[in-house]
Amino acid sequence: MKNRFIVTITDINGSKQYNIHQYMKQIVLYIVLLVVVIFFFSFISIQLLLKEVKQIEDKRNLMQREYSKINEKNQELQDLINEKTQELMIVSDRIEDLEGIVGLSDRIIETNLSLVERVDLAKITGTQKALVMQLIPNGSPLRGTHRVTAEWGIRMHPILKRTHSHTGMDFGVPIGTPIYAPADGVADFVGGSYNGGYGIMVKLEHAFGFKTFYAHLNQVVVQKGDFVRRGQLIAYSGNTGRSTGPHLHYEIRYLGKDLNPRAFIEWTMRDYTEIFEKEKSIKWQSLLTVINSLSEIQETQALSLKALE
């Protein structure tokens, strides 16, 4: 009976005895089983939760990596946008400069054209003006800046000592200074005889009745009948003929009449219209109409060739 605890309950029906030790063993067993079951399910639940947490962490890490990639891509795109914006600003500035050169600035402001339309308009107008300046003498026949020793017009002849009409401009340059064609043309005259004091000289015949003369030369690099392009080397300056020192005598003539070369030397794309005011002896309107027609023909031919490619 050791380690046993017996409870006796007596009533009118008699007495009953209960073995508490046996019940305690069962209760403890049930409690242990319950704890084991709880622990087992808790362990399983915790493992499942840990697995879900691990999956969530993996997804979070994956999303963070994707987010980082998207941020990097967005940064690359933003850098590209900034770069293209800068390029667009540069293009816009250059188009604005080109519009200023070809005389379109006021018209662009009035019409509020898009950038593409501005480029097309500047291209068309610039092409027409470039053709004009390719065919008609403009700019200096010399590179760089050179001292003008005699202007066009009435002056005292330095050798004959009498008043006469100086039909060109004189540039004081060293012997051997390169001379370039101011427009497309053909070598109409290449001579080394006296030429009325001109010495060795070249005459270029240009389109629409224009001619240019280059006198007192040292050497000529073109031959009569040669076609020359604007900017092509044609001769070297000298001191031949009736001359008081090394220089280039430069003339521009239109239908046989000598013109003041200064207006043509100072003529540029940016100052395109100034020549029309400075030199009014030429019927510019009809001349430009013809040249613009040629420009349109060139553009049509270029478009046709491009379509065939």
TrEMBL record:
InterPro entries: Cell_wall_metabolism_enzyme, Dup_hybrid_motif, M23ase_b-sheet_dom. The keyword Oxidoreductase does not apply. Keywords: Coiled coil, Membrane, Signal, Transmembrane, Transmembrane helix. Residues 46-94 form a coiled coil. The chain crosses the membrane at residues 27-50. Residues 165-261 form the M23ase beta-sheet core domain. One of its GO terms (molecular function) is metalloendopeptidase activity. CDD domains: M23_peptidase. Pfam families: Peptidase_M23. It comes from the Bacteria. PANTHER family: L-ALA--D-GLU ENDOPEPTIDASE (PTHR21666:SF289), PEPTIDASE-RELATED (PTHR21666). This is M23 family peptidase.
